[in-house]
Model the fold of this input.
Amino acid sequence: MDLSQAIRDKARELLETGAVKCVIGYETGTDGINARPAFIYEAAEVDRLIFDETCGHNLATYLLHHRAENIAVVVKPCDSRAINLLHGEHQIERDKVYIIGVVCPGVVGRQWGVKGRQLLPACQACTDRNPVVYDYLVGEPVAEGAPAPAPPLPEVEDLERMPPEERCQFWRREFERCIRCYACRQACPGCQCTECFVERLEPEWVGIRIDAPQNWMWHTIRAFHLAGRCIECQACRRACPVDIRLDLLNHKLAWEVAQLFNFRPGMTAEALFPLATFVRDEKLGVGEWASS
Amino acid sequence: MSYQPRIIGFLCNWCSYAGADMAGTSRMSYPPNIRIIRVPCTGRLDPLFVAKAFQEGADGVLVAGCHPGDCHYAEGNYHARRRYALLHLLLEFLGIEPERIRLEWVSASEGKRFTQLVTDFTEQVARLGPCQAVGGQS
Amino acid sequence: MARIGVFICHCGSNIAGTVDIPRVVAEAQKLPMVVHAEDNEYTCSEVGQRSLREAIQEHRLNRVVIGACSPRMHENTFRNTVASAGLNPYLLEMANLREHASWVHGDQREAATVKAIDLIRAAVAKVARAQPLFARQIGVTKRALVIGGGIAGIQCALDIANAGFEVVLVERTPSIGGRMAQLDKTFPTLDCSACILTPKMVEVGQHPRIRLLTYAEVKEVRGFVGNFEADILQKARHVDHDKCLGCGICWQKCPARAPSEFDMGVGQRTAIYIPFAQAVPGKPVIDREHCRYQQYLEWQRAGAEGKKPPECRICEKLCPVGAIDWEQRDEMITEEFGAIVVATGYKTFDHSVYGEYGGGRYPDVITSLQLERLMSASGPTLGEVTRPSDGQPPKTVVFISCVGSRDDSVGRPYCSKVCCMYLAKQSIMLKEHDPEVQSYIFYIDIRAGGKNYEEFVRRAQEEAGTVYIRGRVSKTYPEKGKLIVWGEDSLMGRPVQIAADLVVLATGIEPSEGAIELAQTLHISYDVHSFLVEAHPKLRPVETMTDGVFLAGTAMGPMDIPDSVAQGSAAAAKVCGLLSKDTLALEPMVANVNAVKCVGCLLCQQVCPFKAIDTETLRDGRIVVRINEGLCKGCGLCVSACRPGAMNLRGFSNEQLLAQVKALTR
Ligand SMILES: Cc1cc2nc3c(=O)[nH]c(=O)nc-3n(C[C@H](O)[C@H](O)[C@H](O)COP(=O)(O)OP(=O)(O)OC[C@H]3O[C@@H](n4cnc5c(N)ncnc54)[C@H](O)[C@@H]3O)c2cc1C
Ligand code: SF4
Ligand code: SF4
Ligand code: SF4
Ligand code: FES
Done:
């Protein structure tokens, strides 16, 4: 069956039976490349819902704003990991959320310097086709091996090979462009703080000035706060109006967390965050100075 | 040595700060660049303080605590070990040479080791020169 | 508005000899919010402290920085001084100009001076953000809980009770006494174990300030030092101990039999029983599993199919006071305590992994504790040592030491400490029982460190003629009514073969069943072998990392009776010290939560080593965390885990640390 139709049917049923108050899904966007989020409250409206390769947004983020009522949400595999993340961090009550999982073919999106519609690079590399958690599955599950972390992006490896000065030049050029609109933060399901450190005057982690050092601090803290938590849905990168390569920063840390702790966030709601625990005699081979 | 690196040392109160005191009481001597901040435990220190120190202009940061197993709070340094591994990788990826950051275990009796450590680290950071990774001063 | 005063100490020439004090004072004066700066010859001296007090008053200072020695040295001194001048003691910060500047940079006046100025600047920045802190006073429940009624727990309970405090002693089995009650004689003096133990047991049973709960277990403990609350499960005994006279008619007549735990399975007991003749309390319990009437009830509950078991109830019929109570149920008792001592003792290693010794397969291979029971005059054989297989007295006995000790391959790398000594003891005792007995001991090393211990081993060799063979045993097998023990004499470098009548395994010591669960509810740590861990192996041997919880005896590692008793008394002294206070001051430098910022992710709760973080639901339904200030130790792990910045640490706040970083990188 057509994916969109399957979602509509399910949405209608959920709304008509009163099982949920709202279904968060996608509807056709205005630019032809990005579908936009749709909040459907009436069964009569369900025909607005679609699903195709333009459905990039991670809708799980909106659950943070709808904590009180029963909600259904359409999620792709990476978004479904965000749901586990939010569940594991006690940000949503699982029984209030009805998850419509979609088997994902990968999505396109507005891409800088790329003409027309093309799968996002992250989607090209992605091996997770099936949602990790759902109440209702749309599409035929793809046979796949144990879900594995995507291999390090070639661009990340390129950066790693550079001498430090070049690497910091690269990031300076990136961070310089940041206008600190915080669209990346708003799009991120992992950013749940009621008050973000970046907007706090005391303690002042990041100065209010928009310049190289302050931007560096903002991006360093943002990345670290998401280390071991980022599910690499690309929402931040997609949201950024000046195309800063947040995906590389996130991917680097996600890769290292997978290597060091054999951990991928959001695969289950129960798995323990690696920074919430430790192993007494572990040798991580990094951080601890091995001089003596 | 004309260039004087700026080094911040975060030392846990129970072992490493006492180790630094021990270096003093034994009248040992090490380069004066390091500025020590006392924290209750390496686990107290959000690694982002280290990042902040670099952003504010530090050229090197030392974090020292009790040896694994000896943390006054039993587990603080085990958590620190994981957190600093990630911070290290992040800062390195952002272009800060990993040699500018050290997480070390120094006990209250290791005044000599502390002296040696600070001496080595200061020389190491001095060789690297000023830290340029963060970009111009604000 | 902060009004900060800065006081720079010369420390004689210790600081002034290197650091340019006038320059530091001049620079301090320029710092924001500093309204007064001065230097003193010795700030900690009477004169210096007076000057400090006067300056606080004269300049209406509300924050103080002292540039002197290490805060580890004099922070408390100066806190008291500023407090005596009416200032909150936590509005003080020290800059360590001596240990961290003058003493380590003695030959670099300029660099040391610059550093001193920096350190003062950081201290000023930090103190400007300091908040007054108040040590909260909490009451102390003047009652102690002692868990485990072995010799360590008994000694501890008696010492506490004799000092005038109430004690509840909880013992899991039907009687106190522990392992010591099972022993025949004790090394190195060979006094009879029961003779020295039972008077203490009786004293416990009769002590007006000791409430003895046997056949009971501690299930859950909440709260913190001075204010614990424990749920204690009193298992149903089916005997009303208030009525029971302990006359013994019931256990003499009970027809049901079960292997006796107390006799380590070499003897039997009835279903209604006291574990041994001198048990305290001397009143029985009914073991539901073996009681015939209970089996009958079970058969009924299961649908009354198959053969009907006898309804028995003989005990009920014979009891002169009607103490048998079939209706009794397990009961949860909740009580409050100010302090807790864990003295849960040990059990012995399960030797079945050593197939080569033949334990479990051949009846005449027994453990050392079983031998204690066979040697005991009140044991199943009334002190006649006989072979389990044929009841004959053994003439050749082989002892194998380190069964489950000092052996990495079975996960027991540690020494069980008492075995070398009790093997010597047992060989001496066997000789005394029967001069024809010849004992052989296979050993790795003989460990006899202790008063008169080495002499005792010598006595076994010289007087009892015990033959010590250094080496391991490689196999044991029965042949013509004997057990053939093959071993190696590693000193002679040759194999040995002994035809033994009895083989005794010196099984090692390991923590009692349930030690980990207990440790977890008490929030105390245990090592890889599940022995409980003391706060400091040398300086705080009977304390734990959780205030108010203490340890005694073999629960924390192998030790003999004198050490267990010493620890029981040591723990009692600690408990009395605690209970003698009417109130306790809680450490004020602890974590605190800003509930507005908390998003309830509970990461802090996961990292807190002291389980000091609870959750609460706000009126708007949000779940946030709350600090239990009685448990929080102020480590700050939660603070650095909290992304939203909701958690902070008093005295080392994020604001303060950030201000220090900025002041030092300027
Ligand atoms: C074969 C043998 C011979 C020995 N001979 C000697 C000797 O001659 N001289 C000598 O000095 N030492 C000897 N020892 C060592 C001696 O037995 C111990 O040092 C001593 O018994 C330790 O006392 P304890 O109170 O620490 O532990 P235990 O005697 O084990 O007492 C612990 C008590 O706690 C109870 N308990 C356990 N868990 C719980 C719980 N969760 N809740 C409530 N109660 C609980 C147990 O039932 C027990 O009653 C010998 C040991 C062995 C194995
Ligand atoms: S979206 Fe882009 S510009 Fe906006 S804050 Fe994030 S990185 Fe900076
Ligand atoms: S870590 Fe911070 S936000 Fe999360 S529950 Fe704890 S105090 Fe609240
Ligand atoms: S400061 Fe340490 S002890 Fe206190 S609540 Fe936080 S993690 Fe627990
Ligand atoms: S107290 Fe030193 S590292 Fe925790």
About this structure: Chain C touches chain B through 47 residues (CB under 8 Å).
